[in-house]
Amino acid sequence: MADRQDKAVADTERRSTGGSGATSGNAVKAGTEASAVRDEHFVYRGARRKYVAFPLGGIGTGSISLTGSGRLVDWSIRNKPDIHQFNGYSHFAIKAEQDGVLLDARVLNGPYEGNPTGSPATRKFDGFGFGANRDTLAGVPHFDDATFIGRFPIAEVEFVDARFPGQVRLTALSPFIPHEDRDSSMPVAMFAIEITNTSDKPIDYTIGGTLGNLGCDSGVHRFVHENGLHALHLTSADTDRPPEQRGDLSIATDADDIEHVDYHFRGQWFDSLSLYWREFARAGRLKSRSYDHPRESRNMFSQPEHGTLAARVTVAPGARRIVRFVISWNYPVGSIYWFDRAGPGSPFYEGHAPTWKNYYATQWADSLATATDALHRWQDLETRTLAYRDSLFGSSLPREIVDAVSGTLGILRTATVIRLEGGQLWGWEGQHEHDGSCEGSCTHVWNYQQALPYLFPALERSLRETEFAYNQLPSGGLTFRQRLPLGSGFDVIGPCADGHFGAVIKAYREWKNSGDDAWLRAQWPAIRRAIDYAWSPENPDRWDPERTGVLWGRQHHTLDMELFGPNSWLTGMYLAALKAGAEMARAMGDATFAGELTHIAGKGREYVDCELFNGRWFTQKLDLNDRTLIEPFDQNRKAGVLAESFMQAYWSDEYGEIKYQVGDGCLTDQLLGQWHADLAGLGDLFDPELVRTALQSVYRENFRPSLRDHFNPCRVYAYENDGGLLLATWPEGTHKPAVPAPYAEEVWTGLEYMMASHLIARGLVDEGLTIVRAARARHDGSNRNPWNDIECGSYYARSLSSYALINAYLGLSFDARNGEIGIRPANGAHGTFPWSAGKGWGNVTVDGAGVSIEVLGGELNIASLSLPLLEGELTIDGVAVSREGALVRLRAPRRMQAGERLVVRRSGAPHAASKASGASGVNTEVQHGQA
């Protein structure tokens, strides 16, 4: 036992010092000196702790959230969101004894953070008007204070109470390892509870984990002791439930001295919690309890059955011990409860809905198998997860970028994301409290997210594969909401211009990032049909029938309505798709088609530069008073999400104007296509000087340091003293349409991060960081959850545009086709920065004399580097190499594995010593605590 506890203490010291480890063939060095010094910005105390809810779980598994006070909430693990909901009174608790006398007992919670009058509940006689939510255990002794440290993918809670004899710290994580999508898709939350005895005598501590049997009326609880592990495996006796309502949970530990209460007392009123706490909060071992028959009646408070698994440890004066628990789940089948509805917001399916099977259920037989795997591989999974945390938080990136990226990556863990049986990704736009918000991997929303293509590119490729296989109409158009089950039909609205062309651009990005010509060849026929759709006679929206390079017709888009006539926003997406298509066509041997696309794109660029730029920004060109512009599109199709007829929706007799347009306003999204082109390495779509001027105008006209005097009749995501970037404005001298595009007065973080990264990439660094700073100030914990960027619901996918901030600030470019990586930090910044591309990830360090690239996970195949900021003759690992301008070529292509480093130096500069991740050279030797 002592050996295991010594190892646990050493693991914790590695966490706190940023130590290193090497496991499973990945020589990952976890941490840098910078990460050893805790940045107070990511420490949440007092008022900043109020709205903290940190998601735990795997990609596509659903999640549990840990609040700023250590409560377990938002149990969204049964294949749909359940925000603000509890799993009974599931919790961790601790008690201390000495010489057979109870010293103290408390649940591992800090102060109650809910509404004292009542918080959301599942039954009529709970909730608002019934006092503090009982399942929060606000009425059970808990710690006076808690400090929450949130550095995704890991959270820590330090509990403080003068009455408790010792210091208690909880560390919570779920595996999150770039390019390792299986390990990052484990349905598990891992908890390490560290106890330090601050007294002068040994103390016996008992740490208990109580787990509710979520979603079943009558539980079957089995205590398991196998392979050095102990667990409670919770299944259901409700055998009449359909498969989509069945599943199991486990709580497990690798501690040695174990106590277990398989069932809490079966009773009504408050009996189970009352008797549990009376039995826990006394000296001695817990009273075991088991039943050999199902519960015969439901609890009157709709409480599930509970069980408790506890570990007992003796801690010497001044010593530390760690007890590790995992909570895992397996609900293999999900109901497509929204199947066949007319659109988001329509009634749910009335019949027996079809189902899907979760990917994780094909990898782990049940929750007990997941728990066993997580505990047996704890050190490996933790070390690699820590390595990613420390690469991000120990970097030289501006704090606001780290905050934005780490604050949104948790979306991938939540019920916003599903992984289907074959491993394919599918997503909602966001989440309502108890169901998904706007289904179908909505292309015009998911267009913005930039995390998956760099961190988990195989999952991003699956989005392209299912999109081209199941979303493409016979005409070539790509519908923008993907129906489940895959292949069950098409969305009723049809293609949207931004999402349709985004698919082509992103296919190019995925091909370039993977270098996989076979993959492109398999997708190319569908990509070609999608490009042809722009001018196809079968396109009822008449986007560009004359192949002018400009979109003229009806253009559905992410503001949920239609634009008519030329505009740089959607035409820019078209031009980026044409340039991407030309590159792919050449690779596929179709030089004629490539030439045609290049010619069309050239015409489109000339038109936009000459006709749509007003000297300050790019506008939409149409006569708002000309009804005849829209009459040809009255084709008995839905008017976006509206129930009105087309002409009722889009023409105002009162004002004599076309409704829902931008006109000569300044639109934040006006250069969305150029943003995509920059990220994908497609070059300039428009005159770069006009682009820079337009970006400056968006910042000047649309950013508000304070919204106190801003009128917003729409959804209010930012207000009063919040700062934010508006979707559109009509500055003095312009005409605001009587009924402008929907949402125009709103603030969306997805657009803020997009615009900020574009500003940074184009050299307007201060302006970009100012926007990010304002967005993150709105999510500082005192007003909104730092890990929940909202838009049309919680955990909104568009906000994953934040990841582009890293690549923009680092100036990262990557092309796996020829093994080229490029580095150009913003404003010539020096320091250590995270990178992820192709098949690997790691750190890059830049100083005045050179650049070094370190691989922390996966691999990097490299033949050349683009280093425009590094002048003169260079060496690579001490050997002179040739260069062609900014391009530096290795003497021979190199395959770098995890733990390897490549160092480029100016000739004559000192050769960089090999050391731990980044520039710190952290000492990884630790002293074991006394056991």
Which key terms come to mind for this protein?
single chain, 931 residues, alpha+beta, nine-stranded antiparallel sheet, 41 strands, globular
How would you explain this protein's 3D organization?
By secondary structure, the chain is of the alpha+beta class. Helices cover 25% and strands 23% of the residues. The strands form eleven sheets. Strands 32, 33, 34, 35, 36, 37, 38, 39, 40 and 41 form a ten-stranded mixed β-sheet that branches. A nine-stranded antiparallel β-sheet has the order 1-7-8-9-10-17-14-13-12. Strand 32 (813-815) and strand 33 (820-822) form a beta hairpin. The longest helix has 22 residues, at 591-612. It is globular. The N and C termini lie close together (9 Å).
Task: Briefly say what this structure is.
By secondary structure, this protein is an alpha+beta fold. The radius of gyration is 28 Å and the shape is globular.
Terminal Cα span: 9 Å
How large a portion of the residues is in β-strands, by DSSP E? 15-25%
Number of helices: 20
- Number of DSSP strands? 41
Structural class: alpha+beta
Given as residue ranges, the uncertain stretches (5+ residues, pLDDT < 50) are: 1-36, 913-931
Assign an overall shape.
globular
Please bin the fraction of helical residues.
Answer: 10-25%
Alpha carbon gyration radius: 28 Å
Report the mean per-residue pLDDT as an integer.
92
Largest sheet: 10 strands, mixed
Any chance you could write out the topology, listing elements then pairs?
Layout: H1 2-17, H2 33-36, E1 43-44, E2 53-56, E3 63-67, E4 72-76, E5 91-98, E6 101-107, E7 145-151, E8 154-160, E9 167-173, E10 188-196, E11 203-212, E12 219-226, E13 229-236, E14 248-253, E15 258-261, H3 271-280, E16 306-315, E17 320-330, E18 333-335, E19 355-357, H4 360-363, H5 367-376, H6 378-393, H7 399-409, E20 417-419, E21 425-427, E22 430-431, E23 436-437, H8 443-446, H9 452-455, H10 457-470, H11 497-514, H12 517-532, E24 554-556, E25 562-564, H13 568-587, H14 591-612, H15 646-650, E26 651-652, E27 657-658, E28 666-667, H16 672-680, H17 688-702, E29 703-704, E30 724-725, E31 728-729, H18 749-761, H19 765-777, H20 804-810, E32 813-815, E33 820-822, E34 831-837, E35 839-847, E36 850-866, E37 874-876, E38 879-881, E39 883-884, E40 887-897, E41 901-906
Parallel strand pairs: 33-36
Antiparallel strand pairs: 1-7, 2-3, 3-4, 5-6, 5-11, 7-8, 8-9, 9-10, 10-17, 11-16, 12-13, 13-14, 14-17, 15-16, 18-19, 20-21, 22-23, 24-25, 26-27, 28-31, 29-30, 32-33, 34-35, 35-36, 36-40, 36-41, 37-38, 37-41, 39-40
